[in-house]
Amino acid sequence: MMKLRLINLIPLIITIPAISIGVVAMYNNKVPILIWAQNIACFIIATLISYFVISNKFKKRSNRFYSISIIISMLLIILTYMGQSINGVHRWVSIGFIKFNVSMMVLPLVIIALWSLHEIKSLWVTITIIIAIAILLAIQPDASEVTGFSIPMVVMLCSRSDKKVLRVSTIGILSILVVLSWVFLDNLPPVAYVERIVSLLSNMGLIWLVFGIISLVILPAPFIFFSPKNSELPSISVGLYFVIILISTLVGNFPVPLMGYGISPIIGYFIPITWYAKSIINS
């Protein structure tokens, strides 16, 4: 019983260090309360929803659920092109004064959903969807998300032994898209409390910097090192996604998930960590 209760709290335990340290950094650097309060509010709501989902005995998600999730996610990514761009970059859907970074919000779920689709559908169907999403991300452009999505997909495709030529061709296409996305990198300027939040921590002292880095390293760790039985591949794939997103922040102006300002990365992380905890219980 105690073990089950701890599993129910996995999303809270894993996320609270990065979010808390990020809020402290923003507060210490005089970032307006309206900014960092959004992270706190989203964190509280996401934690409550996650705990409810994990604690209740919902039926196992059907393949139809994952198919619908992929369709909705692709539509949301396409919707980013309908709004006004920022310096030619299309990554956001706005609701009022809040901008949602769609790819950071939906791609972890898409990775899990594609694994489910990969298991039951023709390889052609899975590959078509993978390439379509990768192209949409590359056109946005978003080198971090293209890379974070493509590499887990390569791992997933390599897990199958059939249709080698088709798989190799797809891996080649994804590799080209990744390279092109970094060659034609966007020129959006960094925001101190989004992309440069770690720098704000370093200004606060070495201890804050060390704790901040540790809190970020924790985020992909459970997916990779403690994968649930029968779901190792999607778990590791999601973990790889977050590893790549974190590494990308070191070489480009990309948002630091959970620690920096932004409710989209919080939503995007709570979805797979809730799935992870639920999978641990079910296994």
Automatic annotation (TrEMBL):
Compartments in which it is found: Membrane
InterPro entries: FtsW/RodA
The organism's place on the tree of life at top rank: Bacteria
Topology in the lipid bilayer: Multi-pass membrane protein
GO CC field: membrane
Membrane-spanning ranges: 7-27, 33-53, 65-86, 92-115, 122-140, 168-185, 205-226, 233-252, 258-277
Protein's GO biological process: cell division; regulation of cell shape
Any Pfam family matching the protein: FTSW_RODA_SPOVE
Keyword field: Cell cycle, Cell division, Cell shape, Membrane, Transmembrane, Transmembrane helix
Name of this chain's protein: Cell division protein
